[in-house]
Amino acid sequence: MRSRDVAFWKEAIRDKIESIMENNTWVLVDLPPGCKSLGNKWIFKRKMKVDGSVDKFKARLVIQGFRQKEGIDYFDTYAPVARITSIRLLISLASIHNIVIHQMDVRTAFLNGDLMERCT
User: Fold this and answer.
1) What is the pTM of this model?
2) 3-state secondary structure of 71
3) Which of 9, 30, 92, 109 is the most exposed place for a label (fewest CB within 10 A)?
4) How far apart are CA 117 and CA 65, in angstroms?
5) Backbone φ and ψ of 20, nearest 5°
6) Within a domain: residue 120?
7) Residue range of the domain that includes 10
8) Pairing of strands 40-48, 54-63
9) Domain tally for the chain?
10) pLDDT class for 46, splitting at 50, 70, 90?
């Protein structure tokens, strides 16, 4: 927060929090007895244009999940990302069949997943 771009970073944080609240991402609940909450931190990233100028400032709130223990705090992990070979295959097929491709950024894709947790 000592950056000369502090106003842009604060706006990025405000946008992220508004998105989280508008989508009802969180529900405030009491922590179960015997459980400790996990920490979190903000990750900041500048999205750049082709000419090297700043396109936008992005902020992400991430949980410090490295403190979780498999089989206690979580059971399965998923990485909802596509492999580059899959992307190349789809682009090749689109080219062969003359299909138009559109690229988009999904800001709240994680909202479609159901999470279940327990504490011991």
Assistant:
1) 0.57
2) coil
3) 30
4) 13
5) -65, -45
6) no
7) 6-112
8) antiparallel
9) 1
10) very high
User: To which residue do tokens 């706006």 refer?
Assistant: 11
At residue 42, the pLDDT reads: 92
The yes-or-no verdict on residue 120 having pLDDT over 60 is no
Residues 63-116: pLDDT tens digits? 887 777 777 777 777 666 788 999 899 999 999 999 998 877 666 655 555 656
Asked if residue 78 lies in contact with residue 33, where contact means CB atoms within 8 angstroms, the answer is: no
d(CA 41, CA 67): 14
Tokens 């399965």 belong to which residue? 76
Residues 6+ apart with CB under 8 A from 35: 119
The answer for residues whose C-beta is within 8 angstroms of residue 50's C-beta and 6 or more apart is none
Q: How far apart are CA 4 and CA 54, in angstroms?
A: 14
Lookup result for tokens 């949980």: 63
What residue type is 3 in one-letter code? Answer: S
> Is residue 117 one of the residues assigned to a domain?
no
Q: Which residue has the tokens 């999904």?
A: 106
